[in-house]
Design goal:
This protein is an alpha/beta fold. The protein has 16 helices and 19 strands.
Length: 503
């Protein structure tokens, strides 16, 4: 047998007669590759198991000493890409069988042929196989270890190769098709189209993109998409696709890369909210704080000139307003950070606690919910306090305030039976400085919006309906339809996206 191959050099396994003689004659540094020679009667399987080979050569002779079919089968069991070359002496091996077995090259040779010389001629084949093997190993390493969903599709949209992360790069550790079938491993996906893996609407979109790439030869840049699946509604991915070319430069399919960008989008959204809060702070400092500060200075100047004590009272009122504004600005700053670790909070408990710390005078709280939501308990209570305080300040001392669940989507509402908010003003009520009360700072509802956004909720303003100052919103609709004049209309704040813990 020949010596072990030099590291980094190609290796060919030769199985044929006079293997020791062929190996001895082959030895030398100037050979294009290393040779591992094995006698047909030896344990060829063991040699193949322990050797990283780039090509296998079998010499078939008329005496049948070499089981060429068996050797080819062993090679294909290891690697279907490795070239297998057959030296066929005296038509000892059937050409048709060579094709069926996957023989790469078949040479008819005479009994006097020089095995070493013929092996020399295989240098280009071995070098090409070595290069392709390295390229395959690099691709394999990429697909095995890269934490991205990478996939190759042919022109019909069928997956040819996929990365290990494709089935688990986002959400559960499997890819579940609309019919409930779960794909845990890359081989489960190979051969399938997007219609076999995803809902029809999504598959139609991706198939259209695939056709565009394959037919035009142009890439599709990073496209942001919402993830598939009820549990992944707040997850987003970015997908890019490019043509896949063969060795002749023809487009034979496409390669796609999909990655999770949820954290990036959350960061961008958080940064956008922070910039908005900075603008609000700048507005408060430049306008809302400056006005009472100018009043205080003016009153102090009048007091110095006239000695009239009423100017001191006016200055004190202006300073009190500045103090309230500063408190609210600090609240805006503290409450605007994204809620990263929410807990289960009972809405009825939060509402009761918030009501207890607000000066509600003769107002009434009607709690119509037992829902639990995912929230920061302290910030949720602050939100409810501000909404309750807004109702008392703008709807009167005897207002009735109701908190309940939304009918058609996750979330809750807070409503009152006051005069309501005119439709043209329903967006501007959340702006810093907006207030119809002389005593308000105009930041209360801005804080409400800031806290809602920090939870990922959306807030909207509409009308409330209260039959006899109690009951459900649906009952109120019935009362209005029946012409019940006891029904009043007030302000209703709806918070959507406030999911219960089991979602």
């Amino acid at each position: 047998m020949s010596a072990p191959p030099v590291e980094g050099r190609p290796l060919v396994v030769y199985c044929g007669p006079d293997s020791d003689g062929v190996a001895e004659r082959w030895s030398g540094d100037r050979r294009p590759f290393d040779l591992r020679a094995v006698d047909p009667g030896d344990d060829v399987a063991a040699v193949l198991d322990e050797t990283a080979f780039d090509c296998v050569v079998c010499h078939a002779t008329s005496d049948g000493s070499a089981n060429v079919g068996g050797v080819v089968g062993l090679v294909r069991g290891h690697d279907r890409h490795v070239p297998v070359v057959v030296f066929d002496g005296d038509d000892a091996f059937d050409v048709g069988a060579a094709v069926d077995l996957g023989v790469t090259q078949h040479f008819d040779v005479s009994s006097e042929f020089d095995a070493v010389a013929e092996l020399e001629r295989l240098a280009p084949t071995v070098e090409r196989a070595r290069r392709e093997r390295r390229e395959r190993s690099m691709l394999d390493s990429l697909l095995w270890h890269i934490p991205l969903s990478v996939y190759f599709k042919d022109r019909t949209g069928r997956h040819v190769r996929v990365s290990d992360a494709l089935t688990e790069h986002i959400g559960p550790p499997y890819l579940e098709s609309p019919d409930g079938k779960r794909h845990h491993a890359p081989e489960d996906v190979v051969g399938k189209t997007d219609f076999d893996l995803y809902p029809d609407a999504l598959a139609e979109e991706t198939a259209e993109d695939d056709r565009t790439v394959v037919e035009s030869g142009e890439s599709i840049g990073e496209r942001i998409e919402r993830s598939v699946g009820g549990d992944l509604d707040e997850m987003y991915v970015a997908t890019s696709k490019a043509p896949w070319y063969d060795e002749h430069g023809d487009v034979v399919g496409l390669v796609g890369v999909t990655r999770d960008v949820t954290d990036r989008l959350k960061y961008e959204k958080q940064l956008e909210r922070q910039n908005e809060r900075l603008e609000r702070f700048a507005g408060v400092i430049s306008h809302d704080l400056r006005n009472p500060l100018e009043v205080a200075f003016a009153r102090l100047e009048f007091a110095q000139e006239t000695g009239d004590p009423e100017h001191f009272e006016a200055a004190e009122d202006a300073l009190d307003r500045m103090n309230a504004l500063i408190d609210d600005v600090l609240t805006l700053a503290r409450q605007g950070e994204t809620v990263d670790d929410p807990e289960s909070v009972a809405l009825d408990v939060a509402a009761t606690d918030a009501w207890a710390v607000v000066d509600t005078r003769d107002a009434t709280l009607d709690v119509q919910t037992t829902t639990t939501v995912q929230a920061d308990a302290g910030r949720l209570q602050q939100l409810l306090e501000n909404v309750f305080r807004n109702a008392v300040e703008h709807a009167g001392d005897d207002v009735t305030v109701c908190i309940g669940d939304l009918d058609d989507e996750p979330g809750f509402f807070v409503a009152d039976d006051g005069p309501g908010i005119p439709e043209p003003d329903r967006e501007s009520v959340f702006d810093s400085g907006y207030s119809t009360s002389d005593s308000g700072t105009g930041l209360g509802l801005s804080i409400v919006r800031t806290i809602a956004e920090a939870h990922g909720w959306e807030i909207r303003v509409t009308e409330s309906r209260f039959p006899d100052l109690a009951g459900t919103d649906a009952a109120a609709d019935d009362a209005v339809d029946a012409g019940d004049d006891r029904t009043s209309r007030g302000a209703r704040f709806e918070f959507t996206g406030a999911d219960p813990p089991d979602r």
